[in-house]
Each structure stands twice: as structure tokens, then as C-alpha cells.
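User: Here's a chain of 94 residues. Predict its fold as C-alpha cells.
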Amino acid sequence: MKANFKIIMGIAFLFFCIYACYAYAFWMGGIFIHRNVYNPVSETKTYRAGDILSCFFGTLFGLISILTSTANIKGIIEGQVAGKMAFDVIERTP
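Assistant: Prediction complete.
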């Protein structure tokens, strides 16, 4: 029961992060367009909808990259625990 609850909370947190990323990207994009913020890359020198969508997808792919790295972090932590156990066995006095 507790394991299922942890899995559900993990999935809920994942979806919360994704939807918060959507909201943040569109909110900042709307502010940039409304205030005519200077964009040095664009030909028109202000942000447009295409620039905001590029920022949105860049933010989304960055978030997905961070979320998929958790399996690698878990492997590193498991390696540290195994290394500590190995050194404990080596340093044990007979």
C-alpha cells in the first residue's frame, strides 16, 4: 500500500513539474510579447510567438532531460553504498 502511494506521488510530482513548466514558459512569453522586450537575435528586435514557442520547447526538453537523469543518479548512489560496504570489509580486523 505504501509503495503504491509513493509511486502515485512520484507520478503526480512528475506531471506537476511538466505543467508548471508549461505555465512558466507561456507566462514569461506573454510578458515578453506584451512589454516588447528586446530580442537581439530576432530581425524585428522584439519577441514574437515563434520565439516563445522555441523557448517553451527548450524548457520542456531541459525538464525532461533532468527527470530522466534520476536513474543515473540512483546508480551512482548505489555504487557509493556498495563501495562503502567493500571498504568496511577490507578494513575489518580479523
